[in-house]
Amino acid sequence: MHSWRCYFSRLMRLSVRWVRLCPRQRQGRRPGPLRQLLSYGKVIFNSLYFNVLTNWDTVLDSIFEPVYWLVDNLTRWFGVVFVCLVIVLTTSVVLIVYLCVLPRIVRTYPTHWILWHLCYGHWNLVNIVFHYYKAITTSPGRSPQEKADIPTVTICKKCIVPKPARTHHCSICNTCVLKMDHHCPWLNNCVGHFNHRYFFSFCLYMTMGCIYCSISAKDMFIEAYYAIEYWAGTHSKNCHLLFSFMLLHKSYYQTPPPNFTSEEKMFHKSLLYLWVLTSSVAVALGSLTIWHAVLITRGETSVERHINRKERKRLKQIGKVFRNPYHHGRINNWKMLFGVEKTSQWITQVLLPSSHPPHGDGLTWGCPPYRQDAMDTI
């Protein structure tokens, strides 16, 4: 009997100890979100405090990591919204041009100007649609995940894969992109080696299309603006006179408002919307297009511009001159981007829609197969 009591008391002590040590495991429940967050914070603190390689850069990166994660996920989500916005705005402009601008051109312009508007407008529209579709659907080029016999510069700290020259990691796409220029939310895609031409061509043709719409609809915009202003001013004057009549009980002469139908009012507002939108996009997107044209002429990307600027300052301090190893001359840089080798290809592959790939595979960057005497420096 005594042995049984000792055995039972020992079993109870072991049970109490097991309950105290493993309350969550005993109850079959996972730790709550607050406890998990505290445990995660404790692990981060210990990994930073007891690490001899920790510096302030590492600490700040760890503190701002949730902010980076939030920005990356919001950018990835907003990319879909921006693509839909581009499609909706472009479609609205095209509809207004077909319903309002082109009928006016066909009724009032000479035959040769009508043919010019029809040919140029549709050529520009086809290039815009084609290059935007190719820019958002074409992969910019990914770094090979397996070991390959290609020269690499370093190892990506996030992908843990070799990085070829001009390759950078995109935190939004969560992969390494060949010749990465930037992540464009308006494309919901990275701009890299294989879709850089589509991106630049879309910006160029969209700018040209907006300028074309602004110039073509300028006279109609002025007429619509004055018509709306006259109608609004007359309506405001009538309300003021009616209010004065109610107060003074005197008769007055009231100018009748213009007899604008609902279709005419919608016509005028559509022209105002068209001209304001296309003019604004032409200025903003035109500036971006010029900026990228300068980078292409220099043989740089948006990422490489910041890297080369720091390297240029560093070498200048020690008395050396920086030379961009990927700059093969102004004309040759454009040929490499557009994948052009013959003069006739500027028409068939640049002015007309073409899905040919750019020069090179994006993994190695040697001397281009063009004549060396044609190379110049910027």
TrEMBL record:
InterPro entries named among the record's database cross-references: Palmitoyltrfase_DHHC (IPR001594), PFA4/ZDH16/20/ERF2-like (IPR039859)
Reaction catalyzed: L-cysteinyl-[protein] + hexadecanoyl-CoA = S-hexadecanoyl-L-cysteinyl-[protein] + CoA
Membrane topology, from the record: Multi-pass membrane protein
GO MF term set: protein-cysteine S-palmitoyltransferase activity
Pfam families (alphabetical): DHHC (PF01529)
The enzyme's E.C. designation: 2.3.1.225
Palmitoyltransferase DHHC domain sequence ranges: 155-306
Gene Ontology cellular component terms for the protein in this record: membrane
Chief subcellular location: membrane
Subcellular location: Membrane
Keyword tags: Acyltransferase, Membrane, Transferase, Transmembrane, Transmembrane helix
Residue intervals passing through the bilayer: 76-101, 113-133, 198-215, 272-294
Family assignment from sequence similarity: Belongs to the DHHC palmitoyltransferase family.
This protein's domain notes: The DHHC domain is required for palmitoyltransferase activity.
Designated name of the protein: Palmitoyltransferase
Organism: Hemibagrus guttatus
